[in-house]
Design brief:
The protein is an alpha/beta fold and 389 residues long. It is 58% helix and 13% strand. Helix 1 packs across helix 8, helix 2 crosses helix 3 and helix 10 crosses helix 11. The mean pLDDT is 87.
Length: 389
């Protein structure tokens, strides 16, 4: 996901550049003014509250604004990201947006400020007033707007400078050159973003084979808790012995064993393009732990897939696997297979439901051949991340 805030004084050309960015990167455009008008027109609860405040001459509260923005983000999860035009306008709103992004498991990738001198801004707006007939494009009103912009925006600029995701662009250049500068900045940011994918699916859905194939195709680090735990068993370590006993009884390995192994894997993986997680998170608690682990690397989950396969087909596959070298300990009997499937149902399905509230969880039909399923997942990844080759 790519999230951008585009800023600049009146007359700098934000509208033109917004159109370019929305089309180029498949972003959803967020303008608080537009969203408010939409809510008011639809006569929603938030829209009605805002209309009442505006009718009384007041300013719509940040509490209403942030609820509308959160609602918009959640209802447009198919977008590759969001472009915020003129938000946040204040230092407080900057903190609000940061908190909202954390809640949604994302972050603001860059704060782009288009900059021109005040005289140029006045000149452009006066010319616009002549051509468009806008009554508010006169010198006294323009100067008041510019004064208000400077007073309110300076603290916001400093907020993002401190977080090192503030970038200024010379707005005096021609439109094409400004677009090229912005595109270069965003592509640089995209090249540094980790592509973190979580693969869900019942045992037997093929998520292991698919995860390995995707890790090779997109040069991602494969993080499989099962493989890590198996390594400990092969080493015959004390942890490995505990894991083996848990496997034999069909139980999940506790977080006290799993988390240190995953953290070690992340620490040792330098200069990677991203991670693909298979078998983790399996519980709600683990989902919060993963968010925390990725946050340490200033990263987050970019894509989530849920592989769906009919229950009878799952049992057939697991029974077939039990007769091969790739069998898992819980494949040894139908009773253990059913128990493992039930455990997934009880503990992991709630995790998927939780992610559906904050992420675009993509359901993939796992019944066709492995190659076809891989192709379908690859299309979803490449549609969202245009810079992947």
């Amino acid at each position: 996901m790519l999230n951008i805030a585009l800023f600049g004084p009146p007359g700098v050309g934000k509208g033109t550049q917004s159109e370019f960015l929305v089309k180029k990167y498949n972003l959803f455009y967020i303008s608080t003014g537009d969203l408010l008008r939409k809510e008011i027109k639809a006569e929603t609860k938030l829209g009605t509250d805002a209309k009442t405040i505006i009718a009384e001459g007041g300013l719509v509260s940040d509490e209403i604004i942030v609820q509308i923005i959160e609602k918009t983000i959640k209802s447009n999860s198919e977008a590759n990201g969001f472009l915020f035009d003129g938000f946040p306008r204040t230092y407080i709103q900057a903190y609000i947006l940061e908190g909202l992004m954390i809640k949604l498991g994302s972050s603001l990738d860059c704060f782009i400020s288009l900059e021109i001198k005040e005289e140029e801004s006045i000149k452009r707006l006066l010319n616009r007033g002549i051509t468009s007939g806008r009554s508010d494009d006169n010198e006294p009103v323009i100067k008041k707007r510019l004064k208000e912009y400077k007073e309110k925006t300076l603290p916001v600029l400093n907020f993002y400078k401190e977080r090192q995701n503030y970038i200024s662009v010379n707005g005096l250049q021609n439109i094409k050159k400004v677009s090229e500068d912005i595109e270069r900045i965003i592509n640089e940011r995209l090249s540094k973003k980790l592509l973190n994918i979580v693969m869900f699916g019942y045992p037997g859905s093929g998520r292991g084979s698919l995860s390995k194939a995707l890790s090779e195709k997109y040069q991602l680090e494969f993080v499989a808790t099962g493989a890590m735990l198996d390594d400990e068993i092969k080493k015959k370590s004390e942890i490995g012995k505990k894991i083996e006993c848990l496997y034999e009884s069909g139980q999940l390995v506790p977080d006290e064993i799993v988390i240190p192994l995953i953290e070690k894997k992340l620490q040792q993986s330098n200069n990677v393009r991203g991670f693909i997680f298979k078998g983790f998170p399996r519980t709600l608690v683990q989902s919060y732990i993963l968010d925390g682990l990725l946050k340490k690397y200033d990263s987050y989950i970019a894509k989530i897939f849920d592989i769906k396969v009919d229950t009878l087909e799952l049992i057939k596959r697991l029974d077939k696997r039990s007769k091969t070298d790739s069998k898992m300990p819980y494949d040894s009997s139908t009773e253990k297979i059913v128990k493992r499937l039930q455990e997934h149902e009880n503990k992991t399905i709630p995790v998927i439901e939780k992610y559906k509230e904050t992420h675009d969880v993509i359901t993939i039909d796992g019944m066709p051949s492995l190659n076809l399923v891989l192709e379908n997942i690859s299309k979803e990844i490449e549609n969202s991340f245009k810079n992947l080759k």
